[in-house]
Each structure stands twice: as C-alpha cells, then as structure tokens.
Amino acid sequence: MAIDYDGLLASGSMMGSGGMIVMDEDDCMVSVAKFYLDFTVEESCGKCTPCRIGNKRLYEMLDKITLGKAEEGDLTRLRNLANVIKDTALCGLGQTSPNPVLSTLDNFPEEYEAHVKESKCPAGQCRALMQYVISPKLCTGCTLCARVCPVDAISGDKKLPHFIDTSVCIKCGACMEKCKFGAISIQ
Amino acid sequence: MNLVKLTIDNKPVVVENGTTILEAAKSIGVRIPSLCYMKMDDMNFENKPGGCRVCVVEVEGRRNLAPACKTECTEGMVVNTHTVRVINARRTVVELILSDHPAECLTCAKSGECELQDLAQNLGIREIHYTGEQSHYKGDQSPAIIREMDKCIMCRRCETACNEVQTVGVLSAVNRGFESVVAPAFEMDLDHSVCTYCGQCVAVCPTGALTERDYTWKVIEALVDPTKTVVVQTAPAVRAALGESFGMEPGSLVTAKMVSALRKLGFDYVFDTDFAADLTIMEEGTELLDRLNRHLNGDQEVKLPILTSCCPGWVKFFEHQFPEMMDVPSTAKSPQQMFGAIAKSYFAKKLDKKREDLVVVSVMPCLAKKYECTREEFSVNGDPDVNVSITTRELAQLIRNANLDFASLPDDDFDQPMGESTGASVIFGTTGGVIEAAVRTAYELHTGKILEKVDFKELRGMEGSRKATVDFDGLKLNIGIAHGLGNARKLLEEVKAGKSEFHAIEIMACPGGCIGGGGQPYHHGNVDILKKRQRAIYEEDKGKPIRKSHENPFIQELYKEFLGKPMSDLSHELLHTHYFDRKKKAEVE
Ligand code: SF4
Ligand code: SF4
Ligand code: SF4
Ligand code: SF4
Ligand code: SF4
Ligand code: SF4
Ligand code: FES
User: Considering B514, B532, B548, B549, which one is annotated as catalytic?
Assistant: First the structure.
C-alpha cells in the first residue's frame, strides 16, 4: 500500500466500506489504526474542534490501548468519539480520519478486547503488552539467557528450568535470541 | 426576494433565500447553541469559520451533521436541532474543547462572562470523558492586554476583529493541528507588534484568552496611601454602560450613582473626563478654525482635512500605518491626557500640593488608554500625568469588592472645578459626537452668531463611515466620520491620495466609538446594546443645561485664571502633543 497522503486516504475509506485490509495476522489492528491516526494528527489543519482535538484524543486512546493502560469503557468512548468526529468534522480529512478505527473496531473487536481486558496483543506487536516467558518443559537450564540478560531478570539453578521476572524484564529480546532450545517465547 | 420553506423541530418556517439554519431557527424561537459564530450588523463584523462545530444539527437526507451557522436553508429541508445524535455530538465536541482547556474558572478574569463556561453549564457537562495532552503557549502581557492562549478555543473572532474590522492585521492563526493558535506573527508579544490596543479582540473573545490588564489593585493601593490625594476622572461612555455590570438594562444612565460609588470607594476628588472633553473642543475647535482660515486665505502649507486625535487607538494606528501623514491629525491630546495635565498643574496648585502627591486615576471604556498613559511624553520627570487607567469593567469589579449595592446608591454630583461639563462633552462617547461638539463651538467662534439648533442629526448614526455638510453661515464645511479602523483607513487613503473632499474628519477606533470600547461590559455580539448606549448618551446631552463646550463656566475660568486662551503657549505645553513614526521604528527593530 502506498504510504502517502492519497494512498492512506483511499485505504481509509476502503476500510470503512468493507474492512478489506490487505494485511496478515501478524499485524495488530490497534496499531494499524494508530498508525493512520498518527498521520491525520500530523495533517490536521486545526480549524475545527473534532479534528484538531478529537483526532489527537483518538490517537491518545489508541496509544493507551496498545500500552495496555486502557480501562473498562474506553472502547465505548473510542467508538463514540470516532463516530462524532466523522459526523462533525469540517472537511474530508477529518470526516474520514476515524474510518480505520471504526472498521478495525467492527471487524476485529476481539483484538481490541484482548488489549483492554487481557492486556494482550494477539499479534504480539504491542511491545508494552509482550511478555517473555521461559517454558519449563523446553528449558534445559543452560544458563545462557541469564548471562546475557542486561538487567538480571532471569533466575534459576543450573540444569533446572529458568524463570523471568516480568517486573524487571525490559523486553530487549536478547535471551530469546540466545536460547538454543527455543524455550523462550513471547506471550 | 426568493423565499424557501423548511421545517425546524417540526415547526414550519419561511425564510429568505440565503438564510442560515441558525438564523432561521432563531426567528421561530429555537435556540441552537453556538460558540465561534458572531455577527454584528452595522459593524461589518461577521465571524463564521464553522470551526467549533457546537452548532451542529441533523438535516434529513444528509450523511453527516450540518453546522447551523454555516448551512443555508433550502426548500423542503427538514431540520432537527435536538436529537440524541445531535446532543451527543454537541456534548462530545464541547468535552473535547474542555479537554484542551485549563479548568481555572475560579480565578479566571472572564468567569461569569465566559461563553465557554456558559455553554458547558447549559449542556450540563459534569465530566470530561476525553482527556489527554493540553496545549501550552507562552503568556503575553502588554500594558493594555493580556493574552493567555492556553484558554484560546480557536474561534478566530479576534482575528476577524483585528484583520477585517480594524485592518490592523496583528492576529492570525499560526501552526497547524493541535498546536494551532491565534497569535501575532512569529508569536511575538503584542507590545512589539503594530497593535493599536483598541481592544476589539478582547471585546469579542468568548473566553479568558484575551482580557484587559487589570490595574484595580494599583487603585486600591493608592486609595489606602495616606500621603496621596487620589483624583478620579470618568469618561463619557462609562456612565452609559456601567449599569449593565449590575444587571441594569443596557442604556441605563448611571452618572449620579457612579459618582456616589466612586466617593464611597474613597477617591478624594471625583471629577469628570467630560470637563476635559470640553477643553479638547476648545483646543481642537480653535485649531480647526485656525487651519481653515489659513487655508481660505490661500496658505499652501496648511493641511486639510484636520483629523481628530482624541482616540489613542487611532493615534497609534496612524503612527504605524500612515507616518507620512503625521501632520494631518490635530495635535490636541486626548481628554484623558488633558485632564491629567491640568490636574497635575492647575489643580495641584489650587490644592497647594506637588504633582507627585496626586494620583490621577481614569475610568475609561478603553484599553488603549492604559497604554496611552504610559507613553513617555505624558510624564514629567517620570511622574505620569495619569497614573492608572482602569476600564468600566474594572470599576464594576471595585464596586463589587467594596460590597456596594450599586442599584440602591444615592445620587451624587461631581466635584468642582473639574467636574462641570456640557452636553457637547457627553457625546464624545459615541461616533459622531466629537465632531458634533466641535461644530457647536466652531460655528459660534467662526460666525460670531448664536447657534440656535445644537442637534446635528446629520452627524449621528451607526454606519461605519458617514459624511455631512454643515453650513457655517455660508461656508460649507464637509465633514467625514469613521469608526472602526478599517473605515478610518479608507478615508485616510483618500486623504493621502489628495482626493479627500473633507475639511474635518472624526475618527474613533472602536465600532460605535467609545460606547463600543474594549473596556466596556461585554456585549457578546449584541449590537442593540451599543445602540442603546448611544441613545443614552444623546439623552444625557439633551438633559444638560449647557450644551456647548465654550459655555462651560469652569472652562472659561480655567482659561482666565491659568491657560490664557486656546492654543496659547501654556495650552500648547500642556494640552497638545506630537506623534512618532512607528513604522521606521518597527523597521529598525
Ligand atoms: S477536519 Fe479538515 S478543517 Fe477540520 S481540522 Fe481537520 S483538516 Fe482542518
Ligand atoms: S528479554 Fe531481555 S531483559 Fe527480558 S529476560 Fe530476556 S534478556 Fe532479560
Ligand atoms: S476561559 Fe472560561 S472556561 Fe476557561 S477558565 Fe476562564 S471562565 Fe473558565
Ligand atoms: S487590540 Fe486591536 S489592534 Fe491590537 S490585536 Fe486586538 S484588535 Fe488588533
Ligand atoms: S483568542 Fe479568543 S477570540 Fe481569539 S481565537 Fe482564541 S478564543 Fe477566539
Ligand atoms: S474609540 Fe474610544 S474606547 Fe475605542 S480606542 Fe478610541 S478612545 Fe478607546
Ligand atoms: S458556531 Fe457554528 S461552527 Fe462554531
């Protein structure tokens, strides 16, 4: 897809009409919507309230969702705001800007819900929601991961399954890369 | 005239083609909330950016909601102004505005007069569902105006006032999207711009983003200082508007109650700027006749038309915009400054006090006067002729602070000698008034005859620029009148091109003249209020026993005891001024 103004606008309206997005399941739909919004926020001329402030708020809400900080009720608010912006913005830019949000909400509600209710990103794209986990079944206790971890988040005795303290882990991914047994995965 | 029929909230309505839904709804008593929209007929003011989206309504068959302020009625249209969809959208839009607004109503200068506050109140907003980053802009404090752009809602009314009505062009939208704001170029301070301090941007701003520089505290400090004698002067237009701040009908004349309030506030002498307006007429009228006579005698040097110079907003305007014509306006100071100069010389001497022991406070309808009294040429050894200038609104604030029940105050009279005034000086407060006052005096000075009919109806009105010919016993005097700086600019361009037919032109920066000044109680776009104030002013004139400036006995005494005659050396020193080329200065800077 062309990542330029016309390309995005065109895809925005296409998404609105049928949800035919050419993407695979590795793409997080919340992030996709956020990506488009980021663009609208940049392009907004600032003349009308719904686009000037509304799109900024839409973006901030999507951001909150991808960070796992969304609360109960945020999805309703998100949908309402998107609808109002569409209904009230002055020009075509503002009127179509919420389409990616609305179409992903309509077609992939479970993705949004996973983010909000389970703090999970099904596509494994939202960094803030990722958790590195060591499978006790696969881990041989080689200690390699514990040695590469820059923040000492991994503990465990030699030859016994290791364990990642997610409150310390900074999600750098080094351990996963090093593990020869495929014992570390993102959830 | 083409008519269209439509239905609004199930009520049929017939309007002229081109009428907006907002206007049509209003005509049948359906109130659609609006925010950015403002229109003032006669004032050449129309702000219709369609930006706030508060006025949205549902139009059957239309995909999205329609802004009522901008959408024209069409035949057969079916409009619903209060459906769930509309109310939800409107509330959401207002919540969005509030989500990027400091919640400072408790300490905000605009509280109680704020259109955003009103709107939120009327919609019953109790919670803001959308929160996030708020925009912050640097503050700007000029001698007259405070800009607090964090409170700006981008309605663009100030821009319309400054650019279209006043043609000063200081304010415009800068930046894009969430960062956009209305500001002078390069976001410089007003103080460094060509701003005239006319205050018309403040007069139309719906929020606390633009307000006057508040000097009430300085007044209180002076009043409690036992070493100071505090003298107050009140401008003509104040008495025709002050009552509005206390819930009185627009157009209520409150002169006597105002004097009473000022005395209760503790001012040592309650005087009238009207006295100085009479003095202005003596000087300006004499100057006009002098120039006129020289012109009639074939003096090529003399410049005509003569332009009035009693409005500091207008003075700063021509200093920036027409510096090559600085010898055209009269050299007479504004009444505020004439008052200050006389108070600190003649009156101080009468009291046997040093000028520094006097504090002169002025109550003005005006923001430019705050700036004017800080101009260096109006000080002697660092002591300003007028120490503090406050607005009608600030006086109302002082009265409220003192817990005075304004409506039930007893009547009181100005002190003498600087409290006596004529009908001629009262009408200084409205467009057309200064020149009418000048004509009343100049006629008698020129012809030596008694003017029987003092009302010059041909000089009155509200049209932006007017002209009239007054017969001075055979000499036909062509008079031009402009209010609003855009109208002034047009007349001035003509003068510059040598195409002006006028002998004298009166100019006031504010639409309506001082009755519409930037320091008056807020009119919220209602021109009727200005018209009622204007009527009140002419009413006061009519009720005055003396209606010609040169017949003011205390003015006569002032000349006899002190000044000599109009345009004497002492008059020149105290009552006349000079102008500065601010274009060059701006270019050098
Ligand atoms: S919708 Fe259009 S007019 Fe409104 S702010 Fe966005 S770009 Fe500007
Ligand atoms: S992802 Fe990085 S920080 Fe987290 S456990 Fe693995 S190596 Fe340590
Ligand atoms: S501008 Fe209006 S809404 Fe904002 S703080 Fe002031 S009074 Fe309140
Ligand atoms: S005070 Fe007058 S000139 Fe200055 S910015 Fe406001 S409208 Fe423009
Ligand atoms: S400063 Fe006031 S008048 Fe100007 S755009 Fe902002 S809110 Fe409107
Ligand atoms: S018209 Fe009156 S209120 Fe307006 S700037 Fe001039 S003197 Fe001040
Ligand atoms: S009042 Fe209609 S858009 Fe602002």
Answer: B514
